[in-house]
Amino acid sequence: MRIHFIVHEHFEAPGAYETWANQRGDEVSYSRVFAGDALPASIEAIDLLIIMGGPQDPDTTRAQCPHFDAKAEQAVIASAISAGKAVIGVCLGAQLIGEALGATYEHSPEKEIGKFPITLTEAGQHDPLFSHFSNTLEVGHWHNDMPGLTDDAVIIAFSAGCPRQIVAYSDRVFGFQCHMELTPEVIELLIAHSENDLCRAADYRFVDTPEMLRAHDYREMNEKLFIFLNKLAERY
């Protein structure tokens, strides 16, 4: 596959998504917008578009963050969806997919940072792309917001802190509010950036300390993600 990543910040790295692509020998390209890379001018040469997370939200303006153009990214996403490409959004990326489809993002009921279980909905349990998930699965989280829902959107999974953890916008377009791509290396990048949030971990129900974040084993969720991605690639 030809995979293109839109990466908003160096500490919101593709992690296990990139590992999966490299293990398969896929053709990988990037728009590292934090480094000044341009967004793709055309989606013709892209099979799978993956939009990563970031501290921004879809309402963040160019004045607030000059390297982040939410409307331009939404246009790329809408173009990819219209062309029948596979599209995955992670955290902010999931919210941008919803926005591109006319669904406004919302604040999550709880801040979640750490590793906590998600639960499959009935629809999720019957979706063949998620048949290898157990009904509950511990995955990574690092968010305050959640994606909006279109009329056709299907919630695949939820958590105690957020009702929209995985959303299927179509059979090829998925929003992951959760972070199944986290690895120990990515965790270190996020910890280094999030000192203010993590020093107040005790103020929140679903925020781990840095020590807890480092102690978690992320391999099982990475493997579940790889299987999902293989199934999506086969469907595409």
Can you offer a commentary on this structure?
With 236 residues, this protein is α/β, with parallel strands linked by helices. The chain has one domain (2-235): Class I glutamine amidotransferase (GATase) domain (Rossmann fold, 3-Layer(aba) Sandwich), CATH 3.40.50.880. 31% of the residues lie in helices and 26% in strands. The chain has eight helices and ten strands. It has helices spanning 16-24, 70-82, 92-100, 122-126, 184-193, 195-198, 210-215, 219-235, and strands at residues 2-7, 27-32, 48-51, 86-90, 106-120, 136-146, 154-159, 166-168, 173-176, 206-207. Strands 1, 2, 3, 4, 5, 6, 7, 8, 9 and 10 form a ten-stranded mixed sheet that branches. Helix 2 links the parallel strand 3 (48-51) and strand 4 (86-90). Helix 2 packs across helix 3. It is globular. The mean pLDDT is 96.
Descriptive keywords:
single chain, about 240 residues, alpha/beta, Rossmann fold, 10-stranded mixed beta sheet, 8 helices, globular
Per-chain topology:
Elements: E1 2-7, H1 16-24, E2 27-32, E3 48-51, H2 70-82, E4 86-90, H3 92-100, E5 106-120, H4 122-126, E6 136-146, E7 154-159, E8 166-168, E9 173-176, H5 184-193, H6 195-198, E10 206-207, H7 210-215, H8 219-235
Parallel strand pairs: 1-2, 1-3, 3-4, 4-9, 5-10
Antiparallel strand pairs: 5-6, 5-7, 7-8, 8-9
Broad CATH class: Alpha Beta
Domains (count): 1
SS summary, helix count:
8
Percentage of residues in helical conformation: 25-40%
**N-to-C SSE string, H for helix and E for strand:** EHEEHEHEHEEEEHHEHH
- The CATH architecture category equals 3-Layer(aba) Sandwich
Please compute the radius of gyration using only Cα atoms: 16 Å
Return the structural class. Answer: alpha/beta
Distance between the termini: 9 Å
- Write down how many β-strands occur, each being a DSSP E stretch of 2 or more residues: 10
Q: In this structure, how is the largest beta sheet organized?
A: 10 strands, mixed
Q: Which stretches are low in confidence, meaning pLDDT under 50 for 5 or more residues running?
A: none
CATH topology term: Rossmann fold
Shape: globular
Strand content: 25-35%
Q: What's the CATH H-level homologous superfamily?
A: Class I glutamine amidotransferase (GATase) domain
Mean pLDDT: 96
